[in-house]
Amino acid sequence: MSLTPVEDAVRFKARFPSLQSYITEALKPSTLEIYNDSAKHAHHKAMQGSISQETHFRIVITSDAFTSKMQPARHRMVYALLKEELDRAGGIHALQLKTMTPQEEDSQVPREKVEREQATAEAEKG
User: Fold this and answer.
1) How many Å is the Cα radius of gyration of the chain?
2) Strand, helix or coil for residue 28
3) CB contact at 8 A, 1 and 35
4) DSSP per position, 76-106
5) Beta pairing, strands 31-36 & 56-62
6) Tell me: the pLDDT tens digits for 24-83?
7) Torsion angle defined by CA atoms of residues 83, 84, 89 and 91, in that order, rounded to the nearest 10 degrees
């Protein structure tokens, strides 16, 4: 597990090569951050005996494709793109989504954006 979206995106792409491209092709995101949170959940009883160690992901997506859609509809769009991997044994067990339009991302509380940028910068330092 890492704390940087860049490292996690690379690992995600290596483990699930088509998924990142599915998201990119279908939603044309202006922001796509993928975090691998699997290590935080490895001790859970449901994960014991799992054939995969990479099962829990957090994804932040900003896309115009979400315009005029409520959060449940946005999440259904992403779940549909990842259906095969969500259904597969040893595939993605848990997926946390944050979906926004570019306008919503721009109107986020500035403090929240700064905190996220600082956390990412600190994690990349090491």
Assistant:
1) 15
2) coil
3) no
4) HHHHHHTHHHHHSTTS--EEEEEEE-HHHHH
5) antiparallel
6) 999 999 999 888 877 564 544 544 555 445 667 888 999 999 999 999 999 999 989 888
7) -70
